[in-house]
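COMPLEX REQUEST
Ligand: 2-acetamido-2-deoxy-beta-D-glucopyranose
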Amino acid sequence: MAKMNLKHFSSIVLAAFFCTQIFQLSVHGVDASSKLYIVYLGEKKHSDPEVVTASHHEKLTPLFESKEEALSSIVYSYKHGFSGFAAMLNESQVHILSDMPDVISVIPNGKFAAHTTRSWDFLGLDYSSHSNSLLQKGKYGEDIIIGVIDSGIWPESKSFDGTGYGPPPTRWKGICQIGDSFGTNNCSNKIIGARWYASDLSSSELEGEYMSPRDYAGHGTHTASTAAGNLVSNTSFHGLAAGSARGGAPRARLAIYKACWGPSVLCSTAALLAAVDDAINDGVDVISMSIGGPNEFPGTLHAVAKGIIVVFSAGNEGPAPQSVKNNVPWVITVAASTIDRSFPTVITLGNSQRLVGQSIYYEIQSSNTNNFTTLVDGSSCDKTTLTEQNVTGKIVLCYNPNAIPQVLPRYNFGEAAQNVLDAGGRGIIYAQYTTNLLQQRRGVPYALVDFDIANKINSYIYSTSNPLVKISPAYNIEGKQVLAKRVAAFSSRGPNPRFPGILKPDIAAPGVSILAAVNGGYQFMSGTSMACPHVTGIVALLKSLHPDWSPAAIKSAVITTASNTDSYDVQLEAEGTPRKIADPFDYGGGHIDPNKAADPGLVYDIDPNDYTKFFNCTLGPSDDCDTYVGQLYQLNVPSIAVPDLKDIVSVWRTVTNVGPINSTYKAFVQPPAGVSVFVEPNLLSFDSNNKVKTFKITFVANRKVQGDYTFGSLTWSDSLNHSVRIPLAIRTIIEDYYADTA
Ligand SMILES: *[C@@H]1O[C@H](CO)[C@@H](O)[C@H](O)[C@H]1NC(C)=O
Ligand SMILES: *[C@@H]1O[C@H](CO)[C@@H](O)[C@H](O)[C@H]1NC(C)=O
Ligand SMILES: *[C@@H]1O[C@H](CO)[C@@H](O)[C@H](O)[C@H]1NC(C)=O
Ligand SMILES: *[C@@H]1O[C@H](CO)[C@@H](O)[C@H](O)[C@H]1NC(C)=O
Ligand SMILES: *[C@@H]1O[C@H](CO)[C@@H](O)[C@H](O)[C@H]1NC(C)=O
Ligand SMILES: *[C@@H]1O[C@H](CO)[C@@H](O)[C@H](O)[C@H]1NC(C)=O
Ligand SMILES: *[C@@H]1O[C@H](CO)[C@@H](O)[C@H](O)[C@H]1NC(C)=O
Ligand SMILES: *[C@@H]1O[C@H](CO)[C@@H](O)[C@H](O)[C@H]1NC(C)=O
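STATUS: Structure written out below.
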């Protein structure tokens, strides 16, 4: 029906995309069969936004009975960064629009769910002024403007205090849009602008919400403070993770775009596009979107073409392969990793045996928990099994050895805990595969344990007539003793389900148990949503240090300097089923290393026209694409993914020297198993006349198999300390179909 231009989408992703709920609006003069569609018209053809809007009206008027009807169908007009609109349309109107020559695509609106003290020191960004980390070199992000598209902001948090900031940079053109519990004084020289987008939502979807930029869910406040919160000393969560909280670029300015609503933080394509359109025009330097779902709309392409760096979360659907979201090449897609902090929680059994789990359980004064309580076996802790015995006032072990295959790798702690509390239980010991996904449960003693410990507790229960247990409040340990930097189990994985020739995710950053600001305090959250603003903060510092670098150059610096090992030089792992050595489908280039990213030596730069070409030949109009299709890996990204190596494939890349003028680099290859790799030339010499060099990488299949992906790397090293590494992911095939993609 509609001109979707989605020819290279995998059908599975397409199905998921269109199954997302499309909601009905009651707009005057629009018939009941109408739904919200987004009509994309590409570059705007006029600099005056009013003229652009008028052209939208003109286009729609013939499709309606009157001009008024046409006007009232429009929910958002995109007229600043690009041209298009979101309107309530019926099927015949969609058909007519799709056939118009200047309409690039018509897509139904979709809805997507949104997907810190310690983490910054862990990344080597020491706040103290005597150190010379990227934080100091990047002037703490001073005068960089970060646009956060999320669920809004809680302006009273100390993390956003505007005291001590000068006026916003003169290029800033945004506004402070007021509303419920949000006045003009809620913007400051820290929160320099705020807007909200609710036109496409029904009143039931907005129940309880603030009709303003004020954050109802806490998610937007958390991500904004992780990216750019002020240094606030003496923060903690009930004594846990005590220290100073701050964002990655603590002096950067924040521009808030509230496009996600309600307790489950739902964001619609139409509202997200309106936010991106405004952010481009307002003058932000970086856009941060911790939002799950297939958001490869071209709005972000226009932002990147204007020099704005766009950072997205990779999604929380791991460890299943092909689960990575936000797969277009012009954005940075961020996976989540653990940091070097854990929260041991001691469990003492009635026989004095001490076992250790994890939680963020803290004691509240009124409770009397420092005592032994009866322990019962709740098995899988579903509603039925809990009715089979009296759990009132008891601590319940939730562990069903026979159900392990079903519980892996899901995390049903939240549901099980609620079942236990509903049945009258006092506390929970919950067995699951990873014990680091901690939840807040005010005053409820709990601990997550692995199956080994669960077995020990289970045997104890059946060894005595009066099983007792005591759960002590959690404490925290941090530093080298904690196994850190594992890719989190929930972090979405490659290969890229839409464009297998583009490697995703791009990079991993901390995203597990991150403490940051929320409404009225500081709270732990986990997710790629938390990893995304870590990268946002770092790219803001890089932009401050290298104001003339393109978004592609900054992305390249981040990816090519990432680390693949921990502080003991042991290869990083990825949590999953089973845990394994991490590969590029888990973390792209690796774990982010901000100080190295400050001085990458070489960058893989990309002209925005090449992104447009990529868009035109995949999602947009397809002029001139014959040689392009099937060769997406020729785009100059800092990684190479070849999904279909039959015999031999050659890939070209171009690097730009941003290090010392006179430099020579030598190529080092770690070939993927079963593949030979040749680099020509394998020496690159740069001087004042030769800053840009192109080279060819040839892959030759040594195995004739319908194969799985194997991984390697190509590193350019100079005689100094520059080591510019890109990941390689190559799959050999015999037939022209895609086989095992795991
Ligand atoms: C769509 O709306 C237009 C204008 O109101 C109307 O003329 C047309 O019949 C409608 N088409 C369908 C399929 O409902
Ligand atoms: C924000 O605005 C609200 C409503 O005008 C006001 O009550 C509140 O004190 C303001 N907060 C700040 C930090 O200025
Ligand atoms: C930190 O905060 C706690 C509780 O708010 C307070 O008791 C303590 O004195 C504070 N410490 C410092 C160093 O400010
Ligand atoms: C602790 O538990 C024991 C045994 O159940 C009970 O006798 C005692 O009164 C409890 N202590 C407190 C402080 O509740
Ligand atoms: C369950 O146990 C509690 C505490 O021991 C007791 O008060 C309650 O009466 C019991 N309920 C039933 C249905 O046996
Ligand atoms: C992409 O398509 C648009 C619309 O057809 C066209 O104007 C533009 O020149 C194309 N750009 C590239 C780089 O192919
Ligand atoms: C680079 O090398 C050229 C030729 O050897 C020399 O003239 C020039 O001074 C060098 N430049 C720098 C910055 O070292
Ligand atoms: C290379 O790095 C090491 C360790 O980071 C440092 O000690 C050394 O001075 C660096 N060398 C150069 C030439 O920059």
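REMARKS: The pocket of 2-acetamido-2-deoxy-beta-D-glucopyranose (ligand 5) is lined by residues 390, 392-393 (CB under 6 Å). The radius of gyration is 26 Å.
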